[in-house]
């Protein structure tokens, strides 16, 4: 029965209704003994003496961000009256972190007394003048063993409860961590992360925009992992991580995305020139100190799309966007460019250039210098005008075509890329960048098993050395020499020296950071540094699928599986047929003995790339592990006797998945001997952990000259 205004309940005088909730009605009242306003929650049903005893235990919690219990009756609670409204998003990330720290502080205090909340949601968090106040704290835990659990509605709110809570499984502190993650997501996004209980059990919430710092996105993602083991182990750990985000200074450093210039000419061949103009501006601006420039791969992801400039800027996390167009008529060239401020879409600068085609590189310099000057008065236009080689135009266009086909990464496109790389070098033998990028392309063929590393290493090394003769500080040339030192020579000191030279002047591309983190740092077992290097690569090229994938490999190597999975799923959101993402999702699940979860990912990767030997090995091994030995053995027959390049690595992974570690080590020895280009990465990644933990590891490490061999 409801209360009525003016009614007396012992020493409490009912003043007015406040609202109703799942547990009952809430009323504003006055404690006539102490002359203070309180809130009385009338519960559904009567409760035992044990309930009253445990309610008093919660009342002993004295925390500034927990709404206190003053008294308890047979069917009501007397609570602290809080002037405020339920927390509501979206709010700016710094404010969200401030509120989140208050909430986690309260949760931590209660968890220390073995009290769970079990119904954490925005409606149970009031924002008062003193900050956040948590309501209904611990009631679900208190009545968990009572018959009235369902009656008073404390089983949780479906869109915020953890998957294990929804399935009626035993709970611990990590269940509250999940619910907190759902609340924090809503504070940042302004919308719920899940729209149904099925989504809570099955789906990840939509990605948060780039306006939310990457560190904060990672925290939310980790809280919302379906598997409790992948979340923060405690609220104390969660709060400590939040404090780290809160102490990071917010610096709005000038940044820019240069979009591909629109080709306004009738000739489709001019498309390469239009793309090239934007790419050269990117390269030139990347040399300006204090300016963050988004790499080509991410900026060009919006090519041909009629996307709002502000949306592009939000996705890429930049303060400015440059767009433009190119029109060619005969030998005459007209270039228009405009610089747009991301925050409001305002045009900061625009210019038109009419030039003869032979003057195109001077035009690029003029545009880049003008942009640098508009972005930041302190940035000198002379800083952008770093002397560089001007290639012959046909050679430059051939290089653009080569890179276009290179990053499609199919058998046909890689052959096309080879033709155009060689054409570019033939048209202009003094073009150092073309030689270095061709060397990088040749190494790329080895990573997907198209060409043995022993065959291409001398050729790629000669190309890179020739590039350095032409341009001694060229980062791309030093980078590929570092890659060869790590993967072919197992000379880690030389690899370190080369990558240091590649990054010496700050003009190294995100691709250089990726190869350094992957081939050198991860390959040599410097896992934490590899993660840090990949963070720089992702920051410079956030939409590059392979950079995201290598980032996930590095995160998996240090056991940060939830974050690794987030990067792989972001890659799949950009390209649902990106087989590497499926492959490493399978490997990460297999590394955690989650074989049933791994098998569908492995099957998908195999269907997309049946020629990739590690995917063959994972799929075959998981089939055996899941009770289909005949199917597994049939699939692994694709690898033959292990003589073909890369087959030994596929067989090694097959035996890892089957739990046959000695056999896996045998095949890894062969892979090291044949110089399979990514064997070091595989051994240091999550899937290689059983081998690293076996007695065979010391010998394998010695074969690769690793420090562990000591």
3D structure, described in words:
By secondary structure, the chain is of the alpha+beta class. Among the domains are: 8-80, Phosphorylase Kinase, domain 1 (2-Layer Sandwich); 85-246, Orthogonal Bundle (Transferase(Phosphotransferase), domain 1); 255-388, 3-Layer(aba) Sandwich (Rossmann fold); 402-494, Serine Threonine Protein Phosphatase 5, Tetratricopeptide repeat (Alpha Horseshoe), CATH 1.25.40.10. The chain is 51% helix and 12% strand. The chain contains 32 helices and 15 strands. The strands form three sheets. The protein has a six-stranded antiparallel β-sheet. Strands 10, 11, 12, 13, 14 and 15 form a six-stranded mixed β-sheet that branches. Strands 7-8-9 form a three-stranded antiparallel β-sheet. Helix 2 (93-112) runs antiparallel to helix 5 (173-189), helix 5 crosses helix 7 (214-223) and helix 16 packs parallel to helix 18. The longest helix has 20 residues, at 93-112. It is globular and about 95 Å long.
* Major sheet summary line: 6 strands, antiparallel
* Regions with little confidence, pLDDT below 50 for 5+ residues: 142-155, 378-385
How do the strands line up in the largest sheet?
1-2-3-4-6-5
- Multimeric state: single chain
Mean pLDDT comes to 84
What is the correct CATH architecture of the domain at 85-246? Orthogonal Bundle
Write a brief caption for the model.
The chain is an alpha+beta fold and 710 residues long. Helices cover 51% and strands 12% of the residues.
What tags apply to this protein structure?
six-stranded antiparallel β-sheet; Rossmann fold; alpha+beta; about 700 residues; single chain; six-stranded mixed β-sheet; about 50% helix; Phosphorylase Kinase, domain 1; Transferase(Phosphotransferase), domain 1
